[in-house]
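USER:
I would value a second opinion on how I read folds in token form. Give me a protein, with the fold worked out from its sequence. Write it directly below this note and I will take it from there.

ASSISTANT:
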Amino acid sequence: MEATYIRHVELLGFEKRFFPSQHYVYLLMVKWSDLSEKLVYRTYPQIHTFHKALKEMFPIEAGEIERKDRIIPSLPAPRWVDSQKSTETRQSTLAEYSHALISLPPHISRCSLLCSFFSIRAEDENPPTLHPIKRNETYVLSREKARGNMSEISGPVILDSYRVITDYRKISKHQIDLNAGDLVEIVEKNPNGWWFCLCELKRGWVPASYLEPLDGPEEAEDAEPDYKGELYVTTKAYEAEQDDEMSLGLGETIEVIHKLLDGWWVIRRGEQTGYFPSMFLLKAGRREKSEAERSGLQREKPPPRRSTIKNVQSIHSRPRHRLSQDTYRRNSRRFLQKKSGGHLAEPQMTAKTTAMTPLSERKNQDNIPELSGSGSEAELKKPAPVVPPRPSPELILERCTDNTRKKVSVHDRSRARSSGSPDPV
């Protein structure tokens, strides 16, 4: 069996600690080949000591023999005294260095020294005791700028704080247990609805639906609906569990009209709308891995929806506002009609996809006329004809032919005779 190796190292930011004395540690998210993820803390002197050991292990690749043969990236020596400013400005160098390390040939990037340095340690799982007065300060590197331009570093950002609305028990080793009323700090808000958070000495993934902002029930970062829609392709089949969800098979193309932070996006297929887990969607035309695969969460289940959570203990007097699927369908239809100049093209539906979607079996509560499949333009489906009442026997005898009338009279006489005198034994 192949040994586990590191496939990605991402610099998340740094933390200012006050115990036993003031110092700074960098937050590194290490993603392994077995799809596990570990958050490790390393000081800059520790990283530089590892760097020198790596150069001694591979002197040729370090350029010790011939400068032109060097492929191991360089790393400046640490300063005598670290400040917050120097720690902040050094993030670009460390981000580039980490990326370059994993891009080296396998005999270096998968060597035991490198794997051992980035492996989880006891102090990573159980950080040193907190300062009795001062609290650790965490600063996060902007992910957009880190991926786009390593030389441009955003100013330090204090982590967002959220409150847990009810008890949550982890279902995998990558998650953590939370209790109602706990305050957590969010390190990463993944679009699939699983957020990486810190809670005292614990850290791991939790569903966003179990968290609420402190200043109000609404999530300020939730995007507005976009009825123009974006094309996405399903990367995994999903069977709807609620009436307002949509079932889809693998490889189906749909339109996303509302991206919500809890990981349940509103999608549109034809005139149908419904919730669908974003971790099973990939933007059409892209070949790179989905967000769930990059985060190592493709083995996880979709996060639970807020509507399915019981014993919610919110600090806010009003609930979070959510649009109904009826509203999404109404607004979507109006947008499409306006876009097509008042004529809405017929959605391409098949018997297979219709059977898979529970929303197709629901009654049209908005009283919106359905579209028929005949003709090039959309037509209103004609109502079924009303079945007339059955005529009375007298009316039938009055309107029937003489031959039919005679047969009916003979049948009536024989039936009356048989009822009056039973057949002999």
